[in-house]
Amino acid sequence: MTTYRTAKPEEFLDLIDFANFVFSHDIVPFDFAKLLPKVYGSDKNTSNIHKVAVSDDGKLRAEIACLPQTVHVCGRTLRAGFIGTVSVHPRARGEGHMKALMNAWIDELRGSCDLSVLGGQRQRYQYFGYTHGGEQVAYHITEPNIRHALRGADASPFAFAPLAETPGAEALALSLHNARPARVEREPALFTEALSSYGARPLAVLKNGRPAGYLAVTDDGKTVQEAAFSDWGDFAPALKAYAAFSGADDFTVLAPSCDTELNRRLLAFAEGYRVGPNLSIRIFDFANVLDAYLTLKFETEGLVPGVFSAVLDGQPVTARADANGVTVERAALPGAPELSLFEAQELLLTIESRYSPVKTPAGWFPLPLFWYNADNF
User: Which candidate, 376, 50, 374, places its Cα nearest to that of 190?
Assistant: First the structure.
């Protein structure tokens, strides 16, 4: 018989060892304490966010964790749960442990969260109601882009240093993050640890020796996962300096679609860009998610005036946008379409609205949900 329960504090190191074993068996050597210090660092004990399957003899057969997150979007606050560390022992696969633990988490999240997110294989998590969606823009920057388009930019005042070792840089970086119109709340004490997730390097951007912004880049320097500046006029010359600093002939800069300053400046010289989904998402409260992310789109990209009304997974909603902003009510207009969870999420979170027979105001969807790498689990 298998027992499904919340992990105990004294099992924390066993949870890490178990996950390291499972992921190393399936992929490459894993060390969760190094990959996710914000959750599994030596000074942490996050056993309470893990649900486990335990055999009669007390051995771990599976574990799934859920990291609680607070998401701030244009003055609205959403509650989210990020599913991660999905681990099943190779000899226990096919016994239903993942299904039992995922369903246990979904039952709990349904009553406490507005949405849940995760990374992972699309079809695997569709069985649990997750849709691969949201929106991310990936810009491709090449050496000729830098050499020609930024030839007049003066990169000489800019330099880079580890964020944690630069006086004043962490405080500036946190303030820049907190000023974003949409952000996952980050604890100040864990800010740099979060930016270090999955081997990323948090860098202070220095202008004439003083902090002017920050970057989070992959260990090989070929992807800028996050960027923010006190003065966006510094972005182009600082990126030119970063190209020389990293030694990369070409690299990628990731951006949420709602970051108007970053997108506008990258569009001016990038070789190309790719718009695609960001994560897999399951919505529990459609009215709250629509209110937050339609308002975000209204305040950043703009929304055409219009009305969207539907019954989404049994939840009636009507959203309206006009020159004054967005309003959402928990009621549907007569004759509003009724959509299943999958149909509703496909419509709201992907480009499905372009092709769907369900009529929606032009450009409202997909909703601009985006999680930075630092906030992933």
Answer: 374
Quick one: which H or E segment has residue 240?
helix 235-246
Are 183 and 208 contacting, i.e. CB atoms less than 8 angstroms apart? Answer: no
What is the per-residue pLDDT for 165? 97
User: Closest Cα to residue 156, out of 211, 203, 208, 229?
Assistant: 208
Q: Is the pLDDT assigned to residue 25 strictly greater than 90?
A: no
Half-sphere exposure of 137 (CA within 13 A, CB side): 18
From CA 354, how far away is CA 310, in angstroms rounded? 17
Closest-CA residue to 38 (of 226, 178, 192, 217): 192
Name the DSSP letter for residue 285.
-
3-state SS, one letter per residue, for 131-143: EEECCEEEEEEEH
Residue-wise pLDDT for 181-226, tens only, equals: 999 999 999 999 999 999 999 999 999 999 999 999 999 999 999 9
d(CA 87, CA 75): 36
Report residue 198 as tokens: 């999955």
- pTM, entire model: 0.96
